[in-house]
Design brief:
Strand content: under 5%
Number of helices: 21
Shape: globular
């Protein structure tokens, strides 16, 4: 990782986003955001709908394959449009301001705050489990600890990009070590002959015949476990040499996570029957209690550490989405400012933190997550459709990486199948998700498209921006460093398009 402050030789310190994310930290962001609490707690979702151990393991591998296809498409988009903001930046560039704003609106309003709230609550429940061993931790205690954790990590992310990425590196390493322990114990069990459930005759012994609907639900569960593979694209401008490190990090991280997920599930089946796994509320904890003896405490601690790192990763990336949206004029300009000393997007971090706190206090978090899953999956597909549209609209644009068109087409075939099935099986959830997205249309026309606002409104906005600047000690980033690279890349695209038209 590149460190230190960026300075103009012989001049004052430059206020700009720092390129402090190297290859290791880039991998940590992807892996840390994909591997949350799910693999420790409830891999039973895939097994329940698959109907057999063997088919469940195949679905885990295929889930990793689909994530790999999607990430290859995002690698091309990330180096072709080298701007922070991920899906939002690509959709805005390809489909225009309204489409980008609707994606941004749903992400800032519900997607990321709800995901953050769920991860923070999972963290608090596992930290409090030893204090309340025989019952569910009290509602208020869980909420308060979640909020303290969120506020602490918001402060860390506001203070230093380097601190935030170091935390991500350390906690990602921690969760990989915990999963490695599970895999090693699983291999020891196999060498001892405890692999009854993994033999072909038992692994494909179906206790129910899965329908197309069951298979779709199993794939949805597996896909959700891999969500987060696109998060590095949100911080492209803070990557050291993004044209090399973005695709490298993707090529390293996705196969590694797929390997870890598959072999962790294999390890679970060396200690538990399918019925035991389905009846467990926390599979890794049950696994630890059966095989680790005195060291069984390692598993709940691992879940807590995993979710702590997940909160940090979500805060880091979602704040960059707010920053990018404000820079495009789709959110208040204050959110596009960074601290004059720490060079961190403090206003954007505070908005993400505040939105999550509100969801925790007033929202039914676990109901909202159903809508989040649908919106999130819809955004993936729209973005990858954008890759095909960009190939058609701008065929001569410079692409450091150019994937075969079969890759986005194959991904979109899986995407369309799961989306159509979701609309058929959960019409209310999908309908509410679409309504949440469409509520952004009037907001866009009133807040973004309407330029000639009354003077009193403009004065109010200016005074609030000025007050926010003084409170947070923030200014607009100066042109340079990460900003220069994004601007020059964008300029090159415009030049290329002009040349083609001529």
């Amino acid at each position: 990782m590149a460190g230190g402050e960026q300075r103009v030789p012989g001049g004052p310190e430059r206020v700009a986003l720092k390129k402090e994310i190297g290859l290791v930290s880039a991998c940590a962001i992807i892996i840390g955001n994909i591997i949350g609490s799910g693999i420790f707690i409830s891999p039973k979702g895939v097994l329940e709908h698959a109907g057999s151990v063997g088919l469940a393991l195949i679905i885990w591998v295929l889930g990793g394959g689909v994530a790999a296809l999607g990430s290859l498409c995002y690698a091309e988009l990330g180096v072709t449009i080298p701007k922070s903001g991920g899906d939002y930046s690509y959709v805005t560039e390809i489909f225009g301001g309204l489409a980008g704003f609707l994606l941004l609106w749903s992400a800032v309003l519900i997607m990321y705050p709800t995901s953050l709230a769920v991860i923070a609550l999972t963290f608090s429940n596992y930290v409090l489990q030893p204090v309340f061993p025989n019952c569910i931790p009290p509602y208020n205690a869980s909420r308060i600890l979640s909020m303290v954790c969120l506020l602490l990590l918001t402060w860390v992310n506001s203070s230093s990009v380097r601190w935030a990425t170091r935390i991500q590196d350390i906690f990602t390493a921690g969760k990989l070590l915990a999963l490695t322990l599970i895999i090693i114990v699983g291999f020891i069990q196999i060498f001892k002959g405890n692999y009854k459930e993994l033999t072909p005759s038992n692994a494909f012994n179906f206790w129910m015949t899965p329908s197309v609907g069951h298979l779709a639900l199993a794939f949805l569960q597996g896909s959700f476990a891999f969500s987060g593979w696109n998060f590095l694209n949100y911080v492209t401008e803070e990557l050291v040499d993004p044209r090399r490190n973005l695709p490298r990090a993707i090529f390293i991280s996705i196969p590694l996570v797929t390997f870890v997920y598959t072999f962790t599930n294999i390890a679970y089946f060396t200690a538990m029957s399918p019925q035991e796994l389905l009846s467990s509320n926390a599979v890794a904890v049950t696994f630890g209690e059966k095989l680790l003896g005195y060291f069984s405490w390692v598993m709940p601690v691992s879940v807590a550490l995993s979710t702590f790192g997940g909160i940090n990763g979500y805060l880091f990336t979602s704040s960059r989405l707010c920053f990018s949206g404000a820079r495009e004029g789709h959110l208040p300009s204050l959110l596009a400012m960074i601290h004059v000393k720490h060079c961190t997007p403090i206003p954007a971090l505070l908005v993400c933190c505040l939105a999550t706190l509100i969801i925790m206090l007033v929202g039914d978090t676990y109901t909202l997550i159903n809508y989040v899953s649908f919106i999130n999956y819809l955004c993936y597909g729209v973005t990858i459709i954008g890759l095909i549209v960009l190939r058609w609209k701008k065929p001569k644009i410079f692409r450091p990486i150019k994937v075969n068109l079969l890759i986005p087409i194959t991904y979109l075939a899986f995407w369309a199948f799961l989306l159509i099935f979701s609309l058929y099986s959960e019409p209310i959830v999908c309908g509410v998700g679409l309504i949440i997205i469409l509520t952004g249309v009037p907001v866009f026309f009133l807040g973004v498209y309407w330029r000639n606002k009354p003077k009193c409104v403009n004065r109010l906005i200016e005074s609030m921006t000025c007050w926010g600047q003084k409170l947070c000690f923030v200014v607009y980033p100066q042109c340079g460093s990460a900003e220069e690279e994004a601007s020059s890349a964008h300029s090159w695209q415009l030049v290329s398009e002009t040349a083609v038209r001529k």
